[in-house]
Amino acid sequence: MMTSLPYPGELAPARERLVLWLLALTQFTVIMDFMVMMPLSPQLMAAFSISPAQFSSAVSAYAWCAGLSGLLAATYIDRFDRKRMLLAVFLLFNLSNLACALAPNFHVLVLSRAFAGLTGGVLGAIGMAIIGDLIAPQRRGYATGIVMTSFSMAAILGVPLGVGLAARFGWQSPFYLLVVVSMAIWCLAAFVLPPLTAHLDRNGNGNAPPARALPELLALFRVPEHLRAFLLTFVTMLNAMLVIPFISPVLVGNLGVQPGDIMWIYLAGGIAAFFSSRFVGSWSDRAGRHKVFRIFVLLSVAPILAITHLPDVSPHWPLLALVCLFPFFMVAMNGRNVPLQALMTTVPDARRRGAFLSANAAVQQIGTGLGALLGGLWLHTDAAGHISGYGLNGWLAAGLSLFTWWWVGQVRAVPAAPALRSPA
To answer: Which residues cross the membrane (predicted)?
Structure first.
């Protein structure tokens, strides 16, 4: 029978890689669930007769609820075996996908997306907490790079397959696919993951009275180093989501791309990001997370402006040109996230790593929801289906990206790991 593992992990190399790839597969389903909504937007807008702003509300509902669940999870995530929590939340997440597939109207779909956010928003924090428990700090960039390939896998396999199924069998089919895939990964996780209770044995968190939960949550936001890290996460996600949710509607409405061809664009970007993620993770371990983050922030500005300012030409843009452009965007955006996530595992006191990462995931989702909401406010669709106002999103995203280039230098680890105390 397997026993709990002490920090920093004593897994054999092969077993460690298996656990990391299992976490990547778990995140693959969460990211596919979120990402597939973007290229499905033209079909959803047509099926439910909604505007881009209304569509962004469905994206925002996921993000707001993911943020709320992340904040709530910060009060209990360090009190339980991480394996059991992962399995319980993952099962609820799978039920949310089934609810999305069965949604008879847009209102039910929004509620189902909210349920998906409540569950999916916690899974990322649990995964990063497991990395923090098992992997030494000097190797977390490498480990994060493996787990972050989930983004690339979703773009390479999940989104193209989902879009292809949706074009042939209806927009519900990607969610049915997620139900099947998620259950297979859940069964694998139940078999592969060891019990993860070292954080309980070390700190006695499992015996902490519930009355301490809220004060300790508030205490997380009283640490200056935490607040600086939270702001970096918030602004990074905000500027990304001013752009990402509206790529597919603009490609279809303004540039004449067929909905079924969106899969090839995401496939090209995903392949490029897949091969770059592990390189970026290892590079950030060698060169420093701050430096690598700054490099990719600068590299992301040009693709952001290019994507948001593609001119409507006649005849329409050839699909091959868009397929060649999108990898630059995906590699740059993903390249920011790998060192950022690795950096976040080094900021908090190890005793409250799970709570900090859960709160950080909540901040990330709030930035995601606000970015999607704001990005849709000034977009307008004319009678011909053309969307205007997207260029402003690009300029705002580029400006906020440059802010994160400067601000990352302010993000450091908590000195001397002070104990979190209840506010007086």
So the answer is: 20-41, 61-78, 85-108, 114-135, 142-163, 175-193, 229-251, 263-280, 292-310, 316-333, 354-378, 390-408
